[in-house]
């Protein structure tokens, strides 16, 4: 009898060892090639280093989006523009993330599909009615950035006075201060700087665009393979809507263009005629084409959401594994104590009975933890079911609490509330929100997250509230947009995925904050479930 108990315990321990090895063994992946990206340190909003030393801008976010859909990895190297221009030729970088295309440059570089059209415009103060186009620049003082591409063209204007500035920001300030009559510069950059200076309504564009050129990513002529990968990524983010989101984020609403009423009316007339002709043509074959387009778009959106959720899940995987490992140590410690004493107490019946009762319980405890982890980690199709809100909430908190050492979590949720939701997706939502609060509360003296639930008709409103850094009114509307983040090391995907999951499960999510350092409130309206169906 004693020998059989001993061998039974030994078999349980060996089984547990094999299970843990299978769980925590790390697969070996081939290292992905990292492409070095040269960028301008001071060319907002395309690319620039901000006051905190972070490299950001439209070009930076665009390459991050390409990285997400293609798997390519990029290392950003901000530098002065004149250094960036020669970095690819000298082998210091693999690509330049944004450059105007010209015939001279095409002899050195290969250019990607167009990111946008770069142009220059004439900017004047809103009340200035003496400068309406290029012909009115005679005898005027014009602000230019040093070594601007249009210097030679402007210098040939009769009696013109050119005032050169070290940056477009200083040139714009000169226009606002009345030092010059007009400013000629990159249209999108001056538009961005005007918005940053709250001067978007103080200036206007006159005349026509100047020096229009294709703006694209540049690689060395010997690397067409890299160019193809980039073009594939550009096409993908243009099709799935990421490009439009990034363009709105960085360029926003344009400065008004004071073109003459006649030109505006003529353009509108041509546009209406063209639209009517196109509409008549499209109606003939609209039904079949529309069905095909919807089918393709639906599949693309499904694939993109799968990638985003997978990407977001990987960000938390190490933390979750650490939490599981921490939880498993407690039952393993109990089992180890029994096994260490077993040789000395093999004849102690009371000891063996206690071991035979406690060890299976500890093994069951480990098994439950592993099942919870696998439920979160294993990808599967969403299965919406009725779940107990309190039980699943506490289960998710347990997975993450090892990393919440400085943060107190207060839960005030009725244990009899039920909602309809996919169980594993619910855990992902809770983990995202808790880890977001954890980051926001990093420097808080008394870090607290309060979780409450209220019944409202056929819905349960689940609220996460923290006393962390909060968000400004300007940033708050963007919280659910992809790649938008105010964190130094954030990826800007987590809250976007949370919203998509809640939408897929028939719920709604909103965010509130009274401002910086005023905390954050996240409200999730979830469909009420029937206890009998749980």
From TrEMBL:
UniProt cross-references to Pfam families, sorted A to Z: HATPase_c, HisKA, SBP_bac_3
Domain Histidine kinase: 323-530
Enzyme Commission number, as recorded: 2.7.13.3
Domain of life: Bacteria
Gene3D superfamilies, alphabetized: 1.10.287.130, Histidine kinase-like ATPase, C-terminal domain, Periplasmic binding protein-like II
Signal peptide: 1-30
Reactions listed under catalytic activity: ATP + protein L-histidine = ADP + protein N-phospho-L-histidine
Assigned keywords, A-Z: Kinase, Phosphoprotein, Signal, Transferase, Two-component regulatory system
Enzyme class: transferase
InterPro entries reported for this sequence: HATPase_C_sf (IPR036890), HATPase_dom (IPR003594), His_kinase_dom (IPR005467), HisK_dim/P_dom (IPR003661), HisK_dim/P_sf (IPR036097), Sig_transdc_His_kin-like_C (IPR004358), Solute-binding_3/MltF_N (IPR001638)
CDD domains per the UniProt record, alphabetical: HATPase, HisKA, PBP2_HisK
Name the UniProt record assigns to this protein: histidine kinase
The organism of origin for this protein: Anoxynatronum sibiricum
């Amino acid at each position: 009898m004693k020998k059989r108990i001993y061998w039974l315990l030994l078999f349980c321990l060996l089984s547990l060892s094999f299970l843990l090895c299978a769980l925590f063994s790390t697969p070996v992946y081939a290292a992905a090639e990292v492409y070095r990206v040269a960028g301008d340190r001071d060319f907002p909003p395309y690319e620039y280093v901000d006051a905190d030393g972070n490299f950001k801008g439209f070009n930076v976010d665009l390459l991050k989006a390409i990285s997400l859909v293609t798997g390519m990895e990029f290392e950003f190297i901000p530098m002065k523009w004149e250094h960036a221009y020669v970095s690819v030729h000298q082998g210091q970088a693999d690509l330049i993330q944004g450059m105007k295309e010209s015939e001279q440059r095409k002899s050195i570089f290969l250019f990607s599909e167009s990111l946008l059209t770069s142009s220059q415009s004439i900017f004047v103060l809103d009340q200035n009615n003496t400068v309406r186009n290029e012909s009115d620049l005679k005898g005027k003082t014009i602000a230019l950035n040093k070594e601007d591409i249009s210097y030679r063209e402007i210098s040939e204007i009769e009696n013109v006075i050119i005032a050169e500035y070290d940056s477009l920001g200083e040139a714009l300030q000169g226009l606002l201060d009345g030092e010059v009559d007009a400013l000629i510069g990159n249209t999108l950059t001056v538009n961005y700087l005007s918005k940053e200076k709250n001067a978007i309504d103080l200036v206007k564009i006159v005349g026509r665009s100047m020096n229009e050129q294709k703006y694209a990513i540049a690689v060395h002529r010997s690397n067409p393979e890299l160019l193809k990968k980039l073009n594939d990524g550009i096409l993908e983010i243009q099709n799935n809507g990421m490009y439009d989101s990034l363009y709105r984020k960085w360029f926003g609403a344009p400065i008004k263009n004071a073109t003459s009423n006649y030109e505006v009316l003529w353009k509108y007339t041509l546009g209406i005629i063209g639209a009517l002709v196109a509409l008549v043509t499209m109606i003939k074959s609209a039904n079949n084409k529309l069905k095909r387009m919807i089918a393709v778009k639906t599949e693309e959106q499904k694939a993109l959401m799968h990638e985003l959720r997978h990407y977001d899940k990987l960000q938390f995987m190490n933390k979750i594994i650490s939490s599981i490992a921490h939880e498993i140590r407690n039952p393993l410690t109990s089992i180890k104590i029994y096994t260490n004493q077993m040789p000395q107490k093999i004849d102690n019946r009371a000891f063996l009975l206690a071991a035979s009762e406690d060890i299976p319980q500890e093994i069951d405890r480990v098994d439950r933890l592993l099942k919870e982890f696998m439920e979160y980690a294993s990808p599967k199709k969403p299965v919406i079911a009725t779940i107990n809100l309190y039980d699943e909430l506490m289960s998710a908190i347990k997975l993450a609490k090892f990393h919440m050492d400085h943060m107190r979590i207060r839960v005030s949720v009725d244990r009899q509330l039920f909602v309809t939701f996919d169980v594993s997706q619910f855990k992902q939502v809770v983990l995202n929100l808790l880890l977001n609060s954890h980051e926001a509360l990093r420097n808080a003296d008394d870090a607290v997250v309060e979780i409450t639930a209220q019944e409202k008709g056929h819905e349960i409103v689940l609220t996460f509230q923290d006393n962390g850094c909060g968000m400004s009114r300007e940033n708050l509307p963007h919280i659910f947009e992809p790649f938008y983040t105010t964190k130094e090391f954030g990826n800007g995907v987590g809250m976007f995925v949370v919203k998509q999951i809640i939408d897929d499960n028939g719920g709604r999510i909103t965010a509130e904050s009274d401002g910086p350092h005023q905390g954050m409130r996240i409200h999730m309206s979830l469909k009420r479930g029937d206890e009998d169906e749980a």
